[in-house]
Amino acid sequence: MSTLFDLTGKTIIITGASSGIGQTCAKVLSGHGAKLILHGTDVKRLNETKAMCADSEKHVIISMNFLDEPEKDEAAFDVILKEHAPVYGLIYAAGVSPTLPFKVLKKKQILEAFQINLFSAIDLIQRILKRGVRSENGMSIVLISSVLSETGERGKSLYGMTKSALVALVKSLALEYADNQIRFNAISPGVINTPLSNKSLYRQNEESMKVVSQQHPLGLGETEDVANAALYLISDASKWVTGTNMIVDGGYLSR
Length: 255
Hints:
Structural class: alpha/beta
Strand content: 15-25%
Protein name: Short-chain dehydrogenase
Strand order of the largest sheet: 3-2-1-4-5-6-7
Number of helices: 7
Pfam families: adh_short_C2
GO molecular function: oxidoreductase activity, acting on the CH-OH group of donors, NAD or NADP as acceptor
Family: Belongs to the short-chain dehydrogenases/reductases (SDR) family.
Distance between the termini: 36 Å
Order of helices and strands: EHEHEHEHEHEHHE
InterPro entries: NAD(P)-bd_dom_sf, Sc_DH/Rdtase_CS, SDR_fam
């Protein structure tokens, strides 16, 4: 194991850990010694993620939905935070990817997407900072955004808005918390092979799939590509990196 990416004994929270990018982040970080708090809403799939991790018995799962019973879930989450403090890092990989024409967007849909993709991230970061459970030696927070924070796509105005907001958030928080040695960065992936992207409309049509693939000069990405970037940003290898939006897109934005 390279000491540059060594996370031995460091507690990392990963949201969206039951599948896709979050699940792969769990596997990669556990392989570098991290102790994980795995968050999601599906207990069965969280346990599957835990079983995939190195030293699986040392990791903790939290299955809760902050939208349904926020006060109850927040109290339970606070207990776990204190039990496993100090917290060295957070990877916020939870999210939804709505595809809706702008003309049919409803306020309810907008609020629901922002709740999961942005507001819950803000709530979680504030909770960690207010509870005093962060590491005294600093902390690294990584928010998973999207290339649609940098460009546009038909039917993805709502999704792009939520992901652009995450990038804006890390840029300001990086300045606000630099004196506390808390680093904030975003990762903006292109199209990745995940359960979420597999539900996209272009996946249902071979010709559309071919077009999307050709838009990525290096081909479509895998969850490991994003997880390796997250490992870099969480670890001390990136100790002088904050306020960035790391593009991991196989050349999509270079066209």
